């Protein structure tokens, strides 16, 4: 079986503060990446594939996750009533 060739890689240098680098290093290790480079490639790939996903979207998702974990949830009937949609369901 022939071994697949890997695309040629180019080294890219970036500058960042030591504090930020420490955050990056802590994150890739916590997330289970094999290396800092693997983590950075993955983050950049996500940024390219999902350019419309922004920090506000991430904050909203994280806030929702915290609400769910803390049990701060509402039923669909509660949400419908809050928005004046009670009784307008297609199921009725």
TrEMBL record:
- Residue segments, region Disordered: 69-92
Top-level taxon in the UniProt lineage: Archaea
UniProt record, GO biological process? regulation of DNA-templated transcription
Q: InterPro entries given for it?
A: Arc_rbn_hlx_hlx, Ribbon_hlx_hlx
What is the recorded name of this protein?
CopG family transcriptional regulator
Source organism of this protein record: Halorientalis persicus
């Amino acid at each position: 079986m022939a071994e697949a060739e890997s695309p040629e890689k180019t080294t890219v240098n970036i500058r960042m503060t030591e504090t930020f680098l420490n955050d990056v290093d802590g994150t890739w290790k916590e997330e289970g990446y094999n290396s800092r480079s693997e983590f950075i490639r993955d983050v950049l790939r996500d940024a390219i594939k999902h350019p419309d996903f922004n920090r506000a979207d991430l904050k909203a998702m994280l806030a929702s996750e915290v609400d769910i974990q803390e049990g701060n949830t509402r039923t669909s009937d509660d949400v419908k009533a809050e928005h004046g949609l009670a009784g307008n369901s297609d199921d009725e």
